[in-house]
Amino acid sequence: MSSGRLAGIARHDRPRGPIETVSEVDVTVREGVHGDYRGAMKPDGHRKRQISLIAAEDWAAALADLDLEPGAIPWSERRVNLLVEGIALPRREGARIHVGDTLVIEAARECDPCSRMEEIHPGLKAALTPDWRGGVLGRVLVEGTIRVGDTIRIEE
Questions:
Q1: How far from the centroid of its chain's Cα atoms is residue 89's Cα?
Q2: Distance CA 88, CA 77 (A)
Q3: Residues 121-140: tens digit of each pLDDT
Q4: What is the DSSP letter of 17?
Q5: What is the pLDDT of residues 67-85, one digit of tens each?
Q6: For the domain 3-155, what is the CATH superfamily, name and number?
Q7: Taking the mean position of all CA atoms in its chain, how far away is CA 86?
């Protein structure tokens, strides 16, 4: 298994709500990232968008496509939960992403960029579109507490 590092954790408690970055968080099957409105179990049990991840390298490539310097737009503006670095996220459903000692996430689908990205910067939605660059959506299989700096491993 290849490995990388958890570089950031973010959450927001309501649609269009402010993004909060944290250094540590509990992630559960029932609520996804604690304090993030997207991860909670729905009454019908549909959990394909329980947690979202983006690779720092993909974010940097999208900014470069727009001729923006690294960090010109903070990664958290992408509105994903986890920023990983040093590892390519899976580009297929079913792959397992291990974070820290216990958390296991199953990749459920591509995280398609929404029109909100155009509000952040013109062209950002298109820059995030190719080859799963916008990230991965997943569902929690095994719960855990994660911290910035934790190891990320991909099990294909």
A1: 10
A2: 20
A3: 999 999 999 999 999 999 99
A4: P
A5: 999 899 999 999 999 999 9
A6: PK beta-barrel domain-like (2.40.33.20)
A7: 14
- Classify residue 155 by its DSSP letter: E
List pLDDT tens digits, range 138-152: 999 999 999 999 999
Question: CA nearest 123: which of 113, 111, 135, 132?
Answer: 113
Phi, psi of 13 (to 5 degrees): -90, 0
Please return the burial class of 67, using the count of CB atoms within 10 Å of its CB with bins 0-12, 13-18 and 19+.
exposed
- For the chain, which residues make up each domain, given as ranges? 3-155
Ramachandran bin of 31, using left for φ above 0, alpha for ψ from -120 to 50, beta for the remaining angles: alpha
Phi, psi dihedral angles at 57 (to 5 degrees): -65, -35
